[in-house]
Amino acid sequence: MNKYYYLLLPGLVLLLAFNSNTNNFIFGHTFSGDESASFLTIVEMIKIESQLAQKDLASNATNAKEHAEHTTEHITANDTKEINERNPRLATELNNTLSDFVKTFESQSPSESTVKDKVSNLGDVLSEVVSARIDKEQLDNVTVKALVVNDLVGEGLEHYNSSLGMEENKTTASNATENGSNETAKIVNDPDYQSAQAAISRAIDLYNEIKPSGNANSTELGNSLNSLKDTIDSKSPFDQADKIVDDKITPLLNGMFKLKLAEEAGHGGEGDHAGEGQSNKGEEQHSSSGNETH
């Protein structure tokens, strides 16, 4: 009998090890605060682009189609892989829903009701994906939300940069007027300009959800975000918008939420302000486990 148990125990150990590995495979790894913020920013931008496509449908079908095409540019193969680790069905459904959304605008005249339904359906799928992909603790985490604010500001700058027809990371535009207090920049890509405005507006809305009360820096950051929006709305030169981010928004986000974002030593350099649409991946990952949650 003892010999029987000696033979049985190794088998049980192997079985437990196999089950443990299987569970790890199914659930995947736990994502850091930076990774979660980057993914949430992707979701926000997909929603923004789909809503802009719906909004432009009646007035400018070309712009609407471009916004629809932009919805697929944010999800990478690695993102799909990570979603698939958590929920294979949702990974396939998201891919099919995005593809279907783009194809809708390849039609000569998709109906407004059809597009409205598809925007709503895409939003529902994205909500499911977020629930499967990101733990609730991080969804409620203030630091993660602050990182999303930062990333949306970066997205806004990147799209504004593109809307002016500028080369990446340049801070002056050849299509701007002579230097002066009332100078304006020429928009050469209207969909990118709309995306820039929408990204900054969403950043402001999200910041208002996490804004600490009774804090002078909190008010200053809110004012700076609104100043950035006004600068883009008034089509001011890119370097004016960039300066607000470098001199005000990034330092204030760092100070208030301890994000450890890279700050430019001097304005006009190629520092990683606002992540140009994503969190600073080269910086220390911000695990949300020890940070404040709502």
Can you give a write-up of this model?
- By secondary structure, the chain is mostly helical.
- It contains eleven helices and no strands.
- Helix content is 66%, strand content 0%.
- The chain has two domains: 33-138, Four Helix Bundle (Hemerythrin (Met), subunit A), CATH 1.20.120; 141-280, no CATH class.
- Helix 2 packs across helix 8 (142-163), helix 2 (33-56) packs across helix 9 and helix 9 runs antiparallel to helix 10.
- The protein is globular, with a radius of gyration of 23 Å.
Strand count, sense and barrel status of the largest sheet are:
none
Tally of contiguous helical segments: 11
Helical content band: 55-70%
Q: Give me the Rg, rounded.
A: 23 Å
Stretches with pLDDT under 50, minimum 5 residues: 4-29, 168-181, 268-291
The secondary structure category is: mainly alpha
Could you say which overall geometry the principal axes of the C-alpha atoms support?
Answer: globular
Order of helices and strands: HHHHHHHHHHH
How many E-type strands? 0
Q: Strand fraction band?
A: under 5%
Averaged pLDDT, please? 81
**Straight-line distance between termini:** 58 Å
Total domain modules: 2
